Amino acid sequence: MNFVTDLLFPNRCLNCNHIIYNQDIICEQCYDQINFTHWEALKQNPLKLKLNTLFPVRETYALMHFEKQGLCRKIIHHLKYKHRENIGRQLAKWTVKKIKLHIKPDLLINIPLHPRKMKKRGYNQLHLYTETLSHAWGIPFDHHYLKRITHHKPQAGKNRLSRQHNTEIFTVPLARCNTHFLLIDDICTTGNTMAGCAWKILEASNNSISILVMAID
């Protein structure tokens, strides 16, 4: 049955539409077009410089640069809006290949969706990504550590003085102390969403946060 399905509906590169292996999402030629970050030699990468103005952060990692007309945008768009949850697994494999953790965190957590959005989409685009990283790195994950309690996004342009508003968007049902979290998101633009999560996590004693995003805008 799988052979017939593959024959009639072969897996195709989401960029150029060439036929590719079942587990892939793009072909080798299109893979070479992705603008990966390559921050290994940088002491202060652009993501850390951005987020340090919003909340205290230990380490920051980004897989790709997000470009409005680039392939990264198309990949993440398909992941979030085209029911291609499997893309998260492939992005995690690229992450393991290209990013080396400077400090191993205690727990992987991700930005939660509001229940209404979760019901509409059917999945959180970060869950499979996080689970695949957890298996590869040997670090536990918790999809439910953070809960989103409002359906509104933080407004762009807010600084750290406005973090009280952002923390009202999230809650922590069962807080942990003395924990180094790796907080995972898809795209970092202003950093306000991550700041709202971070300050809520940091309310518990002796916690610290590192950040991983699929792409930085």
Automatic annotation (TrEMBL):
Gene3D superfamilies: 3.40.50.2020. Residues 5-36 form the Double zinc ribbon domain. SUPFAM superfamilies: PRTase-like. It holds the Pfam family DZR_2. Transmembrane segments: none annotated. It comes from the Bacteria. PANTHER family: DNA UTILIZATION PROTEIN YHGH (PTHR47505). Belongs to the ComF/GntX family. This is ComF family protein. It comes from Elizabethkingia argenteiflava.
